[in-house]
Amino acid sequence: MSVTWRDSDRTRCEFLALDPDGFASDRQTDLRLGSVLVAAGEEQLGQGTLQARVEFGTCLDTPLLVWRVILRNASAEAVHLLRVGFLEGGRGGPSGQPILWEAGDTPGEGRALIHDLSFYTNGWQSWGYAGSLMRSDRAPNTRLGLFTLPRVNAGTPRPPGRGQFGSDMFGVLCHRGLRTGVLAGFLAQQAAFGSLLADVRGLPPTLQLWSDLDGVRLDPGAVFETDWACVQFVDLTRPEPVSPYLDAVARFNQARPGADAPVGWCSWYFFFEKVTQQAVLENLAWAAAHHDEVPLNLIQLDDGFEAQVGDWYDLREAFPDGLPELSRRIQSAGFRPGLWLAPFIAKPQARVLSDHPDWILRDHRGAPANAGFAWRGSARALDVTNPAVLDHVEALIQAAVRDWGFEYLKLDFLYAAALPGKRNDPRRTRAQALRGALERVRAAAGPETVLVGCGCPLGPAVGIVDGMRIGTDVAPRWEPAFMGLKRPFRREPDIPATRSAARNALTRSMLHRKWWVNDPDCLLMREPPTRREPGAPTESRMHLTASEVQFLATVVALSAGSLVVSDDLPRLAPERAAWLGRLIPPLPKAARVFDLFDAAYPSTLVLPLEGPAGLWHLVALLNWADGPGRLQADLLRLGLPQAAAYHAVDFWGESYRRIEGSSLLLASMPAHAAVLLAIRPAAAVPCWLGDSLHISQGFALRAWEFQRAVITAEVGLGRVARGAAWLALPGRPTSVHFEGRPLTAQETHPGVYRIGLEVHNTGRLEIRLP
């Protein structure tokens, strides 16, 4: 461990000796983690300039080791804290050795293991790349320089070579062959932003963990407490291998993961900045008229209502009746009104900046800090350590909630509060500045208002927001592009694209219902436009292929987070509206991303579910490739019970297949396609196998009874549902009735029958067998 600081003379770095004899077990505390036994020791640094107290905690109720450093300025002059190093393990540099020798019980015996390391990296904020990278991979760094660099943490390295990866807040170093790993990170990011650097080019790998303290000023006698660092050993064979860490972070920060997942509509991805009051009202009218089939509950106005980003009280002429009236009409129609705001950033032309130039966050030269490329131009960050800025933000949030009537706030570009710069209060780190501003936002909004973070550093928001965007913006295109150009931008990690949004929805799915409700961004269900309208945003005329729509819908639905569509609803074709309805209500839990620590783009999801139909598993296979792909899965490895054969119903294909043995093979999947199967062991009893009424393929079945050659079932989803069900039956039914109406059972495979259903809220299905 080490501490780096700057005094009046120079920059100094000293290592902490950490003599075990100098530590004393001085107390038992809980840290909201259960019982934690804490041992502490103290050292003098810089010939008495700093007093360092190091505390190690052994968690008795969760498999974590935690530690932190408390620094006190014992000198007569202010010092500036730069960095605290918490961990540096392994041997530096590429050894080039692909072999690891595992010793046996007898000296000289053992076995050779192929080098099979990966590193799970977590990006700094919502849009940052998250996922597992291998020895041969390069970190997905931006190549757009000053345009996008503000969106990554300035204190986290971005190595250009293969096998070297930075990460923010936490990371997981894994041995894929042994199915073990180690997680290192921080319980919070309230004091400072923490970073990691891993090198998996050779054996042993290296792993470093530190906090950047941003040169924060520590006055004489003042104390700075770092966040708690932590280590967890990981068993990759477990369904939720990093849950001990995620749960500890949630408890320590008093996370808010219990909000209902929103099911709604957002204006952005069709209307963009050209949204109008009329467009919102037309979509509201569609949502109200189709509520029986597509029961949305949220209508969220996104960017485009304001005259300038930053001038939130000045509206465009396209909103003549004002926001309070729009909110009232949304509520009167039975929906929750939602509003987009970006409280910590503004366009250079905004009147708020010309009126208050002292509110702008500036660099050491006095120029505005670089807030990155946004709205096709530059942007300005506000200095949230300025009390006047916080008063302004508080008034804005109170106005949105109390005066305008919005119960759901999507807060965007929040990273602006944590950019490097010369702050009004030099005693606060970037993380402290952001955390303090978010706490002020929550206090202004009140505990009942739903707050969703976007473009937000993850750590400081835990315990503040109810929902969090966990990936980059989706887009009506598969790959990143800008101004119609694809090639220069296709590898950019945070330019809007369906591929990037879907990837992060999977690689951060483990955060859902732990730290908050995950927001994977919006569904895009539209078909190609039949006509071109003058003045419409270019991207509103773009669309995904049918396979890509189903791919995105599968990922979003199986992540079990926010389910928000962003099309012009009155233009939706009936088939696409039906696809949307079949995703509602949201699934109760997220699927397990089976290959999360094995692939940068995971391709296998599994979700065990249970109901009157018994136990079944949803299994999704994803083809990320730009051409046809061959995907395979071992059902036993996925956790399914052993059986000689399995029934499988294809949700999107609306078809049945029988799987002999435990190997599932999809020989040729189209590009960018998803196959979603409900799989059950084949058995000699009548069984509901799956359906196209709801993506769960079983929750539509509310009751199931088989007596004396008669099956009675209650079917319903609380909405109008049209589709089919597949049933395994011991013989051809003599009659099938739903709510007294006769239906036809079509045999699609020996012993498997398809029955078409139209359900209004709920109904009774009766099947008589020979």
Please provide a written account of the structure.
Among the domains are: 2-77, no CATH class; 263-348 and 385-581, Alpha-Beta Barrel (TIM Barrel); 603-768, Golgi alpha-mannosidase II (Immunoglobulin-like), CATH 2.60.40.1180. It has 770 residues and is mainly beta. The strands form ten sheets. Strands 3, 4, 5, 6, 10, 11, 13, 14, 17 and 18 form a ten-stranded antiparallel sheet that branches. An eight-stranded parallel sheet has the order 31-30-29-28-23-20-19-32. Strand 13 and strand 14 form a beta hairpin.
Q: What is the secondary structure topology, with strand pairs?
A:
Blueprint: E1 2-6, E2 11-15, E3 24-29, E4 36-45, E5 50-59, E6 65-73, E7 79-89, E8 99-103, E9 110-114, E10 117-122, E11 130-134, E12 164-168, E13 170-175, E14 180-186, E15 193-199, E16 206-218, E17 223-225, E18 229-235, H1 243-253, E19 263-266, H2 268-271, H3 277-289, E20 298-301, E21 306-308, E22 311-315, H4 322-332, E23 336-341, E24 345-346, H5 351-355, E25 373-374, E26 377-378, E27 380-381, H6 387-403, E28 408-411, H7 430-445, E29 450-453, H8 458-461, E30 467-469, H9 498-507, E31 517-519, H10 546-559, E32 563-565, H11 574-581, E33 592-593, E34 604-611, E35 614-623, E36 629-634, E37 645-650, E38 655-660, E39 663-669, E40 673-681, E41 687-691, E42 701-707, E43 710-728, E44 735-738, E45 741-742, E46 745-749, E47 752-768
Parallel strand pairs: 19-20, 19-32, 20-23, 23-28, 28-29, 29-30, 30-31
Antiparallel strand pairs: 1-2, 1-7, 3-4, 4-5, 5-6, 6-17, 6-18, 7-16, 8-9, 10-11, 10-13, 12-15, 13-14, 14-18, 15-16, 21-22, 24-27, 25-26, 33-34, 34-35, 35-40, 36-39, 37-38, 37-40, 41-43, 42-43, 43-47, 44-45, 44-47, 46-47
Helix pairs in contact: 6-7, 9-10
